[in-house]
Design goal:
- It is globular and about 60 Å long.
- It contains eight helices and twelve strands.
- The protein is of the alpha/beta class.
- About 35% of the residues are buried.
- It folds into two domains: about 15-140, no CATH class; about 165-265, no CATH class.
- Helix content is about 25%, strand content about 20%.
- The strands form three sheets. Strands 1-4-5-6-7-8-10 form a seven-stranded parallel β-sheet. A three-stranded mixed β-sheet has the order 9-11-12. Strands 2-3 form a two-stranded antiparallel ribbon.
- Bound molecules: iron/sulfur cluster (SF4).
- Iron/sulfur cluster binds near residues 35, 40, 91 and 121.
Length: about 270
Amino acid sequence: MEQLSLLGQQNADTRSPQTVTWNPWHGCTKVSAGCQHCYMFRRDEAIGKDASVVQKTQMFNLPVRMLRAGAEKGAYKVPSGSHIYTCFSSDFFHQDADDWRQEAWDMMRSRRDCTFFLITKRPERIAACLPPDWGEGWAHVTIAVTTENQREADRRLPVYLSLPLRHWAVMVEPMLSALDLRRYFTEYADPEGRPLISSVSVGGESGPDARPCDYDWVLDLHAQCVKHGVRFHYHQTGARLIKDGKEYRIPRRQQHKQAHKAHLDF
Ligand code: SF4
């Protein structure tokens, strides 16, 4: 046993999975209306930092960092089974991160015991940025696309839905207009006719300069999802909610709660 231990045998990892945020790089540039009040720019401006400079962060290698002491010494710091929100202070497919992305893919490949979730507004860059062994997609990696209005849906979704992915997820946040996604549910479907898009998540805009989100837009998209069997999640109301023609200012701490109370998720 002692010899096996010397060869690297480790105790079983008894830690529970965690939800972790991994920002391998930080900084971005704005590409569309949804970026106008990007929270990352707001936060960086508040501390005098230029958010448009994309830089590697100190947590770049987080998924493969090891514990150096304790009962689980030698195990990964991020426990097995964890869900890793990836690149939430940049865009994973930003061109200024091209030199680092392969290494990030390598880390994701070596952590197939975890799941990774990324969101991009640059689906047109994905195909050229995938790792060579991506094939039809990695089951433990979800690349979601975000679209804030019909124009961006019509620009991004045909590209996104033609990519080799194992999961397709659409974030409509901040929702800035009504959206008709019906053609993307019917024209991009599996052999049984089920939409490739498995989920749609909707939210209004937060922050001091938030633009309004009309509840009728939310209900309409919800009805489209119900009809086509696509999971729907009403994530948050945003700071300015229009309901029955009247505008409501929703404090930040109430935005998730109020959306949850609408009972639209399925
Ligand atoms: S793509 Fe995302 S991170 Fe980049 S500026 Fe737009 S909202 Fe911000």
